[in-house]
Amino acid sequence: MTNKRKSFGNENLSMDSDLDQLFKNKDPKESKEPKEHKLRSFSSIKDYYLKTKDYKQYTIYLPPEIQSKLKSKAIEDDESVSDVIKELVINHYLSDKDIKDAYDRGYNRRNSN
């Protein structure tokens, strides 16, 4: 038996229930589950930041010779200048506590309801 399509002119049509069945979108505010799993170990957090492609642009000023050398060395190593600087900041500049605090703030922002 084939189902007939319902006409919008049909007075017996229950629009709310039919639309609810078609578009089962949950309101994100109704969900109490976090959008992502919270990382606990520092090595996982560090790897998360080293692998992320979620960037925010930031301008730095370097002497022209250093900028040129940095750019050519990054090309030679098949990396972007952004990735080189990101690795240097994460591995050598920020403390473990700084990175963990930044992750916690970002996690809370990304998962706030």
TrEMBL record:
Residues 1-38 are annotated as: Disordered. Coiled coil: none annotated. This is CopG family transcriptional regulator. Residues 21-36 have a biased composition (Basic and acidic residues). SUPFAM superfamilies: Ribbon-helix-helix. It comes from the Bacteria.
